């Protein structure tokens, strides 16, 4: 009887501790594995393409494409981290990758497919491609000085790949004899840490940037946080490969229907990887956030504004880009261990509207999310792209 009473007493104490404020959220040690990912475009609805029987209205498509053409984006951010948190000190280690890709086609292609062109008139279609892939190791060290919480995030990174092409052209001509002439050429410059053509080992040059955040409780229920990530030493890619593709053929509608391209000449080749020195940084960023936690305890509101610089301090002026960022979210918590978050943000030139939920049993937490996204705001709300996130957190 005494043992049974003691067991229930311990159970009651642990339960009371479990439902006390922040006990579920603040683990002393935590291992986290997860990733964010997304795929989008700024002109077409993915739902129109992902059908069993796809029917494409080419004229309607041509009218929907913006004057700047169509832009497609893909991103992936897998990571694994280990964190230690104490009352006035925290220490964390993160191993992660950051893959970002964007490509575009000019509107002329869709105008040609949907509306055609006049005889003997040449339609010139341009394309572009940019790919960045980084791997990095981040250490975070945080401590409190009076009311201020300061976290420093020194990061050692290595660029794995940078690919770019802005000179891809496709020329289409309807000739007076009823034939179609197609002429395509493209050079893609690929800088990498490994030789694309083989015959060598890893030659990535490590870079270093410094991130930091400072938080201050302006009010009991309102906390302000400033964030910065500043490049210090650029990473270096030491191989260069040029992928060259050319295609030329003349055909007719009858030949296409019969499965023949007519007279054609196609070639795709790459030049051998050669030694190079391409310096590149991760995006430089600055932001400020406000966290509002009203006394009810089950609601958290967050808002932030920021700005970023892609390829800062680079010799490749065409790849430099400045962009603003924002973030708005609301989190609802139920019984301390179940939460739902609704958020909208503009992150690295992509609009993302996301719903996620978390089931937290202290020793294990599962986070899942799904979002709609696109580089165009309207398309981000109407099916221009999809993405998501997942994370598993273990600890105590």
Q: Main traits of this protein?
A:
single chain, 396 residues, mainly beta, 14-stranded antiparallel barrel, 12% helix, 62% strand
Output mean pLDDT. Answer: 84
- Poorly predicted runs of 5 or more residues: 11-21
The biggest beta sheet is recorded as: 14 strands, antiparallel, barrel
Count up the helices.
Answer: 6
Structure report:
The protein has 396 residues and is mainly beta. The protein contains six helices and 18 strands. Strand 14 and strand 15 form a beta hairpin. Helix 3 packs antiparallel against helix 4. About 3% of the residues have low confidence.
Secondary structure elements and pairings:
Layout: H1 2-18, E1 29-41, H2 46-49, H3 58-64, E2 70-85, E3 89-105, H4 108-115, E4 122-145, E5 148-174, E6 179-192, E7 207-219, E8 222-233, E9 235-252, H5 253-257, E10 263-270, E11 274-280, E12 284-292, E13 299-310, E14 321-334, E15 338-347, E16 350-360, E17 364-374, H6 377-381, E18 385-395
Antiparallel strand pairs: 1-2, 1-18, 2-3, 3-4, 4-5, 5-6, 5-7, 6-9, 7-8, 8-12, 9-10, 9-11, 12-13, 13-14, 14-15, 15-16, 16-17, 17-18
Helix pairs in contact: 3-4
């Amino acid at each position: 009887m005494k043992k049974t009473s003691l067991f229930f007493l311990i159970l009651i104490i642990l339960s009371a501790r479990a439902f006390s404020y922040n006990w579920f959220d603040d683990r002393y040690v935590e291992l986290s594995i997860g990733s964010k990912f997304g795929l989008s475009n700024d002109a077409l609805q993915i739902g129109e393409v992902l059908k069993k029987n796809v029917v494409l209205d080419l004229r309607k498509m041509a009218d929907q494409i913006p004057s700047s053409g169509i832009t497609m984006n893909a991103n992936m951010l897998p990571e694994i981290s280990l964190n230690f948190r104490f009352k006035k000190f925290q220490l964390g280690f993160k191993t992660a990758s950051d893959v970002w890709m964007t490509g575009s086609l000019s509107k002329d292609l869709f105008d040609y497919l949907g509306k055609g062109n006049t005889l003997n008139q040449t339609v010139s279609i341009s394309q572009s491609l940019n790919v960045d892939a980084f791997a990095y190791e981040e250490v975070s060290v945080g401590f409190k000085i009076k009311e201020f919480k300061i976290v420093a995030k020194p990061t050692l990174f290595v660029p794995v790949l940078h690919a770019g092409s802005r000179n891809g052209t496709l020329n289409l001509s309807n000739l007076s004899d009823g034939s179609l002439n197609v002429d395509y050429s493209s050079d893609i410059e690929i800088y990498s840490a490994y030789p694309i053509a083989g015959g060598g080992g890893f030659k990535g040059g490590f870079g270093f940037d410094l991130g930091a955040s400072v938080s201050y409780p302006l009010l009991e229920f309102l906390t302000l946080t400033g964030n910065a990530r500043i490049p210090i030493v650029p990473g270096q890619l030491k191989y260069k490969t040029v992928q060259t593709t050319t295609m030329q053929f003349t055909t007719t509608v009858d030949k296409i229907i019969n499965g023949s391209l007519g007279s054609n000449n196609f070639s795709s080749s790459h030049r051998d990887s050669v030694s190079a020195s391409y310096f590149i940084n991760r995006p430089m960023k600055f932001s400020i956030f406000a966290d509002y936690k009203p006394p009810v305890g089950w609601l958290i509101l967050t808002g932030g504004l920021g700005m970023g610089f892609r390829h800062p301090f680079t010799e490749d002026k065409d790849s430099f880009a400045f962009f603003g960022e924002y973030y708005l979210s609301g989190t609802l918590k139920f019984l301390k261990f179940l939460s739902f978050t609704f958020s909208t943000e503009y992150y690295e030139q992509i609009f993302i509207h996301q719903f996620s939920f978390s089931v937290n049993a202290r020793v294990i937490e599962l986070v899942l999310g799904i979002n709609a996204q696109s580089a165009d705001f309207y398309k981000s709300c109407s099916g221009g792209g999809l993405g998501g996130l997942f994370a598993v957190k273990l600890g105590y």
